[in-house]
């Protein structure tokens, strides 16, 4: 079982074309949150997966649990909390790029403690953690302790997914990522993440530093400009497939889920998966990830593809 750690919330979309001065705004809500999306994405790709988070006892929390159960994501690591459900409001710009406003102070997904986490006796193939859960206490401290405890025992993955409207202090993000990096095998970032974290440093220099610290696979997504993957042995860059973009919500989560799915398959079939990350392997798993992400961009919201859809996209999409 693969365990994904982080927030679970509702994305609330502001429809296009509604006047700024309108009294009535017909919002549309969708279950989400980056780790929530990654967990569902992995399950749709065929991996056994559990979500580790705090979920409210309110009716929105009940809905989140129902979605996870319908998607066959294990809820055995979830702790229910007498606290609100986070709401993330999303308004897209003219080219479909989302702007976010989060309302989650004191919400259930920010209140996970070390005592809430117990993976003893569970066969854990890997752990992924990311987004604002990394910097909001006590959840942030619980996840750091988990990373320290599980380092070297299973595959550990990180996607910072920077959200400055949740925690505007960039230094806190930098410090937490620095603390987590020694335990991580896989790190995925976007160009927007690196621009927020290290605005005056070339992305390639940052990636090189992470690889020197022991990261086995690093990936950088650049939206329309494609994505790059680095291992200790090789580096590749993939273009973005051409699709009719509806919005980009969930694209990075889809890329992450696809990448982890490929690594778990590699891990299951190779004694030393990190040594198998040659240029050919990076090209294959990178192409799969960008095609999967492109499928999500062609849909409204974070509607991640299943394995059959990704396989079809690999034969149909033009890179």
TrEMBL record:
<protein>
    <submittedName>
        <fullName>Carbohydrate kinase</fullName>
    </submittedName>
</protein>
<dbReference type="GO" id="GO:0005524">
    <property type="term" value="F:ATP binding"/>
</dbReference>
<dbReference type="Pfam" id="PF00294">
    <property type="entry name" value="PfkB"/>
</dbReference>
<keyword id="KW-0547">Nucleotide-binding</keyword>
<comment type="similarity">
    <text>Belongs to the carbohydrate kinase PfkB family.</text>
</comment>
<dbReference type="InterPro" id="IPR029056">
    <property type="entry name" value="Ribokinase-like"/>
</dbReference>
<keyword id="KW-0418">Kinase</keyword>
<dbReference type="GO" id="GO:0016301">
    <property type="term" value="F:kinase activity"/>
</dbReference>
<feature type="domain" description="Carbohydrate kinase PfkB">
    <location>
        <begin position="27"/>
        <end position="305"/>
    </location>
</feature>
<dbReference type="InterPro" id="IPR011611">
    <property type="entry name" value="PfkB_dom"/>
</dbReference>
<dbReference type="InterPro" id="IPR050306">
    <property type="entry name" value="PfkB_Carbo_kinase"/>
</dbReference>
<keyword id="KW-0067">ATP-binding</keyword>
<keyword id="KW-0808">Transferase</keyword>
């Amino acid at each position: 079982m693969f365990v994904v750690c982080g927030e679970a919330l509702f994305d609330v979309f502001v429809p296009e074309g509604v006047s700024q001065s309108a009294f009535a705004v017909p919002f549309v809500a969708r279950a989400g949150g980056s780790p929530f999306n990654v967990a569902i994405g992995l399950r749709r790709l065929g991996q056994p997966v559990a979500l580790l988070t705090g979920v409210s006892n309110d009716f929105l929390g009940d809905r989140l649990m129902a979605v996870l159960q319908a998607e066959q994501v294990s809820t055995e690591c979830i702790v229910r909390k007498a606290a609100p459900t986070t709401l993330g409001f999303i308004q897209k710009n003219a080219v479909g790029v989302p702007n976010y406003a989060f309302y989650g102070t004191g919400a259930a997904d920010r209140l996970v403690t070390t005592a809430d986490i117990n993976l003893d006796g569970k066969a854990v193939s890997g752990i992924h953690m990311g987004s604002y859960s990394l910097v909001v206490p006590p959840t942030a401290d619980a996840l750091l302790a988990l990373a320290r405890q599980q380092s070297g025992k299973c595959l550990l993955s990180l996607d910072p997914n920077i959200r400055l409207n949740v925690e505007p202090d960039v230094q806190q993000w930098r410090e937490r990522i620095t603390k987590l990096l020694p335990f991580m095998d896989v790190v995925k970032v976007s160009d927007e993440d690196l621009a927020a974290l290290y605005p005056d440093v070339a992305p390639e220099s940052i990636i090189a530093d992470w690889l020197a610290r022991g990261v086995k696979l690093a990936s950088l997504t650049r939206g329309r400009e494609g994505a790059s993957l680095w291992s200790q042995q090789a580096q590749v860059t993939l273009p973005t497939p051409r699709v009719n973009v509806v919005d980009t919500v969930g694209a990075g989560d889809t890329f992450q889920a696809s990448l982890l799915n490929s690594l778990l398959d590699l891990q299951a079939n190779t004694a030393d998966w990190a040594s198998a990350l040659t240029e050919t392997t990076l090209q294959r798993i990178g192409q799969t990830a960008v095609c999967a992400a492109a499928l999500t961009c062609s849909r409204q919201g974070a509607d991640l593809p299943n394995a059959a859809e990704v396989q079809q996209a690999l034969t149909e999409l033009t890179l």
